[in-house]
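## retry 2 of 3
previous attempt timed out at serialization; input unchanged, resubmitting
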Amino acid sequence: MKNILVPMGTSPSAINTLQYAVAFAKEMGAQVYIMDVFTLASTAGALSNVTEKVAATGREQIKEYIASIDTLGQELKIASYNGDIVDGLNQINKELGIDLIILSPKSNDVNEEYYLGSTSGRIVKLTNIPALIVPKDYTYEPVKSILVAFKSGILKRGRILNPLVEVVNTFKAEVGLLLVKTPGYTDEDLQINTSLLDLSKNLTITENQTTYHGVLEHFQQYQPDMLCVFRRKRGFFKKLWEKSTILKSEFFAPVPVLVLSVKKY
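## retry succeeded, writing output
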């Protein structure tokens, strides 16, 4: 894992998320890029240097954020983008090669009832980059145990698991698998990818209405430091494809959630 990107918004938890990202990146040996996004429409008669001035203001704000945390001796780099945050993430990924996005679970423009707000929801939904969602005010601690929850063990590409493998190898974490048989499951869904099986210490198979209900039932049994799920249209975050937000009643985790892409990235 070489490059980690942290989108900085105006959420009160943004600085805490950045502090977590710095500590996590240090363990992983990765470079942290802090993303500053602004929207400035070009209009006739606008000064040619307006964009540069706005970008400079954003960079100064980011530098204040950096000054307020413990960088643990690491150099943090700033990536600015004028436009939509998803377009920016994809563009920066194209230029730098982003291995992981670390973000807060919700932005400050939605009510507390939401786990993923419109901004964080769109990032998870519309980018094809692995993401780590860090709970608000969560204090960094080494990852000792990971619960991987899924409704289908089919993975078309083994490299989908690369971020998970790197976390496991770095922290020497134990992995537990939770296969949730939901209504309409097929025998094919029960065929678990061998690379995933090789990572795990144990496997639990349960029957529940949704994958989330399966996690709720078995979370205390595993007591993981991290939850790992897959980004699928009919999977864990299927509600995202309907409205780009997730209510806490639909999903909530008190630990960081690693979201892996099932597509090529």
